Write the structure tokens for this entry.
Amino acid sequence: MTQATNGLRSHRYLKIRVAAAVLVAGGLATTVSLTGASASVHSHTVKNVVISTFKSAKVGTILSDGRTLYTLKPNANACTAACHKIWIPVYLPTGQAKATAGTGVNAAKLGVKTVAGGRQVTYGGKTLFWFFEDKIAGQVKGNVTDTWGKWTDIVLVKPVGTTTTTVAGGGGGVGF
């Protein structure tokens, strides 16, 4: 073998090892391109989607699947592959018919919409997403307007003494 061929094999082997490490360490469903340099995350790998709530003193009682959940009031640009790298759809895993209602969630408002990527969870008829910058439970960084429209967290109960004003990046949300 030539040195160039050996180097190419070594480079590919390294990419495969890195991709495997991402899968094992992150526990995420990942699509990996062995010829490209990146991997993109599409959704949580879960056995059962449970939608519950958490309380934020600033924002109120918010819908969550472990991270803050958001809905989109779309504009003319459809939320497709590029959008889904930032706004990750909440999909049901194979075999689960419906999301499970956790604490504080009205089970009758949970539903499913079949979309190109799978069966996406809905609440009150609106598809659910989480924002890639919300790294830990309780973060609410996705109340923004961007290329795809206006994104808002789903506030079920506002804290006492608050108004309905939405502040970019700071809460407000959509009441259900």
